[in-house]
């Protein structure tokens, strides 16, 4: 628990692993203690939970994965809104970006929306993940390495996309993709975050949080 708290306070992703469903190496169902361990890891704020021997050489790898997923989803659905997360100013040293991540999260929680962010460095998506908005964080990036890096962070769905020279054109393209994939319904509100240390579009000098429908 202390390690998870420390990592979250520093903006680092946390993976809880090792013997999570060890009994399922040889048996089709887990023990109560194992189910409890998964639920506790999720409640403590781990970004990811991981199997090892259960899926590497166990008799029931698919059942183990499905069981872990089921417990995690059920636990998240029953969690109350957590206490305000520790600020990261001393770690990120970018108070402007942190402020926007905090307020974008507040907007997401108030309106019940997902968040769309465009990033080349992953920093804003990581900050958003730290503050735990209710909806999914759709992080669009034109860097494959950033897409891979973000895949482990809580609530982040990293998506590779080619950025055009026009911000509005890129945003429209991203929203259309989400609608085509069934991740966003037509007419559904979504919070758009355009902020960070390095502007993606050179013509822009503003930090923006806007709600699109």
Secondary-structure blueprint:
Blueprint lengths: L1 H8 L5 E2 L15 H13 L3 E2 L3 H4 L4 H18 L10 H4 L2 H17 L2 E5 L4 H9 L5 E5 L2 H7 L5 E5 L6 H14 L9 E5 L13 E5 L1
Parallel strand pairs: 1-2, 3-4, 3-6, 4-5
Antiparallel strand pairs: 6-7
Helix pairs in contact: 2-4, 6-7
Q: What can you see in these coordinates?
A:
With 213 residues, the protein is of the alpha/beta class. It has two domains: 2-78, no CATH class; 89-212, Pyruvate kinase, C-terminal domain (Pyruvate Kinase, Chain: A, domain 1, 3-Layer(aba) Sandwich). Helix content is 44%, strand content 14%. The protein is built from nine helices and seven strands; from the N terminus they run H-E-H-E-H-H-H-H-E-H-E-H-E-H-E-E. The protein has a five-stranded mixed β-sheet with strand order 5-4-3-6-7. Helix 2 links the parallel strand 1 and strand 2 (48-49). The relative contact order is 0.12.
Low-confidence stretches: none
Largest sheet report: 5 strands, mixed
Order of helices and strands: HEHEHHHHEHEHEHEE
Total helical elements = 9
CATH class category name of the largest domain: Alpha Beta
User: What's the CATH superfamily of the largest domain, by name?
Assistant: Pyruvate kinase, C-terminal domain
Any guess at the CATH architecture of the largest domain?
Answer: 3-Layer(aba) Sandwich
Strand order of the largest sheet: 5-4-3-6-7
Strand content: 5-15%
**Outline type:** elongated
CATH topology of the largest domain: Pyruvate Kinase, Chain: A, domain 1
Find the structural class using helix and strand composition. alpha/beta
- Gyration radius, to the nearest Å? 19 Å
N-end to C-end Cα span? 39 Å
Tell me the domain tally.
2
What is the count of β-strands? 7
Mean pLDDT, to the nearest integer, reads 86
Catalytic activity: pyruvate + ATP = phosphoenolpyruvate + ADP + H(+)
EC number: 2.7.1.40
GO molecular function: ATP binding; kinase activity; magnesium ion binding; potassium ion binding; pyruvate kinase activity
Organism: Taxus chinensis (Chinese yew)
């Amino acid at each position: 628990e202390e390690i998870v708290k420390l990592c979250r306070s520093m903006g680092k992703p946390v993976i809880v692993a090792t013997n999570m469903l060890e009994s399922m190496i040889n048996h089709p169902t887990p023990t109560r203690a194992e189910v409890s361990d998964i639920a506790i890891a999720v409640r403590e704020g781990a970004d990811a939970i991981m199997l090892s021997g259960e899926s590497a050489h166990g008799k029931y790898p698919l059942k183990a994965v499905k069981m872990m997923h089921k417990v995690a989803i059920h636990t998240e659905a029953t969690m109350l809104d957590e206490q305000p997360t520790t600020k990261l100013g001393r770690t990120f040293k970018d108070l402007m970006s942190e402020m926007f991540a905090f307020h974008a999260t507040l907007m997401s929680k108030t309106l019940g929306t997902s968040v769309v962010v465009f990033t080349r460095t992953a920093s804003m998506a990581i900050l958003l993940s730290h503050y735990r908005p209710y909806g999914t964080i759709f992080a669009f990036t034109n860097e494959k390495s950033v897409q891979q890096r973000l895949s482990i962070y809580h609530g982040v769905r990293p998506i590779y996309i080619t950025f055009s020279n026009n911000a509005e054109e890129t945003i429209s393209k991203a929203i259309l993709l989400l609608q085509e994939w069934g991740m966003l319904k037509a007419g559904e509100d979504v919070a758009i975050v355009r902020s960070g240390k390095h502007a993606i579009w050179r013509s822009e000098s503003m930090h923006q949080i806007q709600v699109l429908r």
